[in-house]
Every structure is written in C-alpha cells, then in structure tokens.
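agent> Task received from the user: take the single chain below, predict its 3D structure, and emit structure tokens. No templates, no multimer pairing.
agent> Plan: (1) validate residues, (2) run structure prediction, (3) serialize to tokens, (4) report one or two observations.
agent> Step 1 OK, no nonstandard residues flagged.
tool_call: predict_structure(input=
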Amino acid sequence: MNDMNGMEDYSQEENILEKFGRNVNQDVKAGKVDPVIGRDEEIRKVIQILARKTKNNVILLGEPGVGKTAIVEGLAERIVKNDVPATLKDKEIYELDMGALIAGAKYRGEFEERLKAVLNKIKKSEGKIILFIDEIHLIVGAGRTDGAMDASNMLKPMLARGEIDCIGATTLNEYREYIEKDRALERRFQTVMVEEPTVEDTITILRGLKQRFESYHGVRITDGALIAA
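)
tool_result: status=success, residues=229
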C-alpha cells in the first residue's frame, strides 16, 4: 500500500520480517545451515547473556569470516533442539538484512519507515523474536539525511525498555569507531569475543562437516586430506 507521497506503508505489511530478513530457525529446520562445531564456549556465553533480566543484548566481536554468524546459527540450532534454558525456548531468531532495508529507499525517511515497521513487528511478538544484526555498526548513522533519525536512535529506546532482544556482530575496530562512542547504545550490550579457530579446532570443524561435504559432492574425503587442508 502507498501513502499520498508515493511511499509504501510498511506498517501494514504482514510479512515485513521475511521481506527484510531471514528466519534463522527455519533455515536450521530446512537443513540450509551447516552444523556448528567447536563454538560451544561462545554459544554458552551468548545464552547466558540473553537469559539475563537486564543488559541482555549481545555484540559478537571478531574479524570478518571468523564465524560470528555461525554462532548465531548454532544458537538457533539449540533452540530448535530445545537445548536451551526455559527463557529461550520457542524463540525465533531473525537476521536483519541491512542491504535490503537500505536498497531502493527512494523517499526521504523511507529507510526509517522500513526499520520502524520491522522493530514494531518484533516488539509485538512480546519477546518471542531475537533480532540479529550483522555489521551492527551500520545502524549508527544509517539512513540519516538532514533532519532524519539515525537508525540507532530508533533501536536504543526499545533496548532500554527491554522490548527487543538483540544480537549484533561487528569487528573490534568498527565497534570502537561506531558503537563504543555512542554510550547510550554501547551500555545496552555485552560483548563476546570470537577468535580465529586454532588449527586443532579447524580440523575438528572439518571432520564434523566431512560427511555433509561427501554427500553433497559425491566424493570421499580422507582424514589426511582434511589435515593437509
């Protein structure tokens, strides 16, 4: 539906979360996600923080490609298997697609309208949805034009009131550059460091994925080949 200015009315859109995000739980159930191996410690820390009454939002810090999204997928896997505390049972994780939110936002304030509709939909779920924002530093100043609201200013009051549970992911440099400087945003989150897997961890991860790769590619992979890789 469009308003008088030609801008779509996102507040009335039923499938707003599907339009601008992905349901990570559904991807796990559909077998679209590789099993997460060797990240038990980080997943345990994320669960601990999310289960708190206050300051229960998480930012995963690590270099690109280190496996931050895999930790969120590992959490979704545990929720699907009911292997989480009672406070996290039946929760669904939605990953926000910042690219889709920003793309094609032609009218002034359209990005903000899209984000507001997404956040309101999550708020209405009354705690059933956990929002995952990869590259969360992008929300500081995202969509900002003269007189328009910085996206983080839409998120901060909802986090402060406990209306939204959020997991963010970014690099340490971008965290320091954008999030840490915004004290009102920074104090809503607990950080979890995600380090590069060790050689031993990498071999364990590859061994865990071996059967999946063999089935998919129709080949047999020897242990020696994994270690050499």
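agent> Step 4: summary for the user.
The beta strands are 21-23, 57-61, 92-96, 129-134, 165-170, 189-193.
agent> Done.
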